[in-house]
Design a protein that fits this description.
Length: about 130
Amino acid sequence: MARLFSREEAEQVLPKIVPLLEELRALKRQHDEWQAKAEALQQNTKSNGHGMDVEASRVTQGQQSTGVQINGLIEKVRSLGAEVKDIEIGLIDFRSRVRGREVYLCWKLGEDGIRWWHDLNTGYGSREPLE
C-alpha cells in the first residue's frame, strides 16, 4: 500500500523534488531531440539506400543514455513518495485522503504550494481546489 501524505508532509518534500523535476524536463528534451535525429536518420537511410552505422550508433547511445537517466530520476521521485504524471510540465501526485477517501494531491512546477486534488481514476483536468 502506498504511503498517504498530508498536504503539509507533501509540501515538505517538494524542495527535494523540484530539482529532480527540472532535471527530468531537461533530459526529456534531450531524449526527444535524440528521437527526432533517429527518425531523420531512418528516413535518410531509406531514401538514399546507404547505411549510417556510426551516426546510428551515436543516436541509439544518446537515446539509451537519456532514457536510463530519466528512469533513474523518476525512481528518485518515487522514493520520496510522489508519482510523476507529466515530465514536460513537471506534474506529480501524492496519495492522500480527502473527505474520507483516497485521492491524489496534485502539484506542478511553478505552483507555490499544493492547492489541488483529484480522484485516483481521474487526472490533471479534473483537479479540484483543496479548500
